[in-house]
Amino acid sequence: MIWFFLCVGLLVAGYFIYGKFVERIFGPKPELATPAITMADGVDYVPMSDKKVYLVQLLNIAGVGPIFGPILGALYGPVAMLWIVFGCIFAGAVHDYFSGMLSVRAKGASVPTVVGEHLGTAAKHFMNLFAVVLLMLVGVVFVLSPAGLLANLTSTDLVYWIVAIFAYYILATIVPIDKIIGRFYPIFGALLVFMSVGLIIGLIVSGKGFYNTGMDFSNLHPTELPLWPLLFITIACGAVSGFHATQSPLMARCMQNEKSGRFIFYGAMIGEGIIALIWCTLGLSFYDSTEALNATMANGGPAAVVHEVSTSLLGTVGGILAILGVVILPITSGDTAFRSARLIVADFLKMTQKPLVKRLLIAIPMFILGFIISKAEFGVIWRYFGWANQTTAVIMLWAAAAYLIKEGKLHWICTIPAIFMTAVVITYLANAPIGFGLAMNVSTIIGLVSTALITLAFLVKFRPSQLREAKES
Fold this sequence. Notes:
One of its GO terms (biological process) is cellular response to starvation. The chain is mainly α. It has one domain: Up-down Bundle (Amino acid/polyamine transporter I). Helices cover 76% and strands 0% of the residues. It has helices spanning 2-16, 18-26, 35-38, 50-61, 65-73, 79-105, 111-119, 121-154, 158-174, 181-206, 230-234, 243-252, 261-286, 290-298, 301-349, 356-373, 378-406, 412-431, 440-461, 464-472. α4 packs across α10, α5 packs across α13 and α6 (79-105) packs across α18 (412-431).
């Protein structure tokens, strides 16, 4: 458990040290009025307190990703915790901070508009389509996973819960943000934190430790799946996740001061990283071996691990409460995923969202399509979601790097994680069955060479002399 607390300490230190460094480079301007003030409409642009915005942001970004991903990542051994810590501090939290703050500076614009502003019109049109597809996949994943947990918990038919959750999503997507999301989600966020801490305390009291690994950072996966690049796709929301770039604009429309950005955006990602560490530690410690953990997942996936760990460590009542906390996560991210999709489509169509009928005009067809997608196999949806999620993060990181270059600021804080994640997603696509199915050595070469070419093209396009020439012309 010393390793767990050391990792948590590193995340907290990362917030105060590296987070402050990132904030200084961006340069928030507290004297500027935020979109929540200048564009208040009572629907999406609604001023809220920092604490409330932080808790809503935490729930928005923390779906099943920081639970299911780290449980799957635990199969690789303690090395998964290293990725959570360093990925979160140097990539994920940086990504979230810039996706939120660049949205604030762009009047609360959604991620396609932000990307288009800094990478060009072609990138904007691509992101309009790509972001909506990602959000639809997220919404469906975050219907099926909680529906499965609730069906197991209540012995009720799965279809009933799918319909019930979709019905709630429709309501939460179209009503003003402060009526449901702003009112109840801070309470759910506090419950999530409480139950996560309760589980780690239960693990400490149980006396369980890492399963016979010591601090072995080699690949311990029982089926010998490769660390590269799968670990960096498997653990997304707890380390770096493009889905967050679609969610941050929701709170960019509600925060009242730019100085709050580090607490809200960088800080919420650090909070999610701690949740991911808790569930990775539970996966590493509760079972005697990676084989035992894998055997449980073979009979119900990560949801079976959540159920078994929660009820064993906290008893029946405490376990049910913990499971309900886990259910809340995807539901509170799924509805905001559909809400973000509605706003992206509305921005593209230039359709005001104040009248209810116009919100319904976009939301209803979107939910019908989502219900159709939910009929596909969950495993297939999850794999496409994983790749699309990390690819969105790549695009957002390159957009943030371009912004920093244009502003004459230290762009490497975004460029370096953008380079790394570009290599990850290209290698994964080349190797994975959902992609080209090539051999790993060939896929890695393709990933590295492609990344080198993309990086060179980026640095040439956004070199200072080129930007000066563009401004003069």
